[in-house]
Amino acid sequence: MDPRLLLHSIVGVNFLLFLWEFFLTYRQKAKHDSTPKRPREVESIISEGDFVKARSYSIDHLSFSMIRMLIECGIMIAMLYGGYYSYLWSLSELTAYPIAAFLILHYLIAFIIDLPLSLYENFVIEDSHGFNKYTISFYMFDAVKKLILTTVITIPLGWGAVWLMENGGDLFFIYLWLFISVVILGMMTIYPAYIAPLFDQYSPLPDGQLKTAIEELAAKLHYPLTKIYVVDGSTRSGHSNAYMYGFWKNKRIVLYDTLLSGEEKEKVYAALGKEEPMHEDGRSKEDEKGMGVEEVVAVVAHELGHWALSHTTRQLVTAELNILLALFCFSFFHNNENLAAAFGFNGGAPPLLSLLVIMQYMMVVYNEASSLFTVFITRRMEFEADEYAAKLGFAPKLSTALIKLSKDNLTLPVNDDLYSLCRHTHPPVTERVETLKKFM
Ligand SMILES: [Zn+2]
């Protein structure tokens, strides 16, 4: 195909995907716009006051997402028609290390373009709904740290990938896949132990009722728990969460401090050396947030369900197969000179660039399909983990925990069906609570 026509087609397909994404978000926003009053079926889940707050947060957030999508789509079209990739590569080739130079410039440009949007999102939208806990300087420090870290990690990966593409022959995609797999497993080990602590403070959960209850549950289920950490998520954001990680016999559970309440929270704040934010009249600002001990344990039971049902392993295997398939498809295109010319490279694209642009722009339909598949699988796993916790007798507490979590995170329990189907990895709280009722 003629390179010019090829470029139009690539831009066209990417534009269609933008329209699809925009359409989904628009539907969700329209649903929220048209639901000013709390529907009867969610009365047991959310109070009228919280409904108003959650709705306004959601509408602001979705409106901003749509603006962001428009801007990003405009930038994408400008980059593709403007020959961004070939221009940046020709600049990088002037240096002794073109791959490193390209990645540094590319990440830096993406960072600068994204910065005003991220600042607005955090300091205007999140802030006006009480979630932002950053100061501007702390935010910038974090963002620059993230940029440097990503660049430093990606450069050796880029070198490795290019070497394999140049020396791996016809089966290079298999070697590349093995290389990526080793990197993923390595990152899964290194990230929680060495990288996450660069950003957040982790502290062992202090002794007490909560720790004992979690340890008893883990022992009962033969979960090889070695440590329970609390992370100071509240330094950055008021959103809350819990997760587990670790290989084989060395598993950890991490709780966000924002999940906790009362005495447990005070102990954790003391351990982290933090002060509780106070209202002027001396009341704690976070008194109304967080869960009781039994509810946190119910959340942990759900997380352990993911482990007992091998969800993590299943997800990892699916991701691995997905990468192999994507690289296999890539192997058909990477030497195509017309395609390279469409992106402004005459006489073939350098391996790093063919990997970047083909994966990003040529495989968009494949990527969207695989993400829909992932959403579908993840949502099923959430129901399975809920069921696991429910069978252990946690249905009532998990149910109230989910309701509190949804309230604390200002999640609106009203959704457009199509949006929810395509985007919610976690089923809406209404569906989860309804399913849990079967076990009560
Ligand atoms: Zn889950």
Automatic annotation (TrEMBL):
Cofactor note: Binds 1 zinc ion per subunit.
Binding site for Zn(2+): H302, H306, E382
Known EC number: 3.4.24.84
Top-level enzyme category: hydrolase
Reaction equation(s) it catalyzes: Hydrolyzes the peptide bond -P2-(S-farnesyl or geranylgeranyl)C-P1'-P2'-P3'-COOH where P1' and P2' are amino acids with aliphatic side chains and P3' is any C-terminal residue
Role according to the record: Proteolytically removes the C-terminal three residues of farnesylated proteins.
Protein name according to UniProt: CAAX prenyl protease
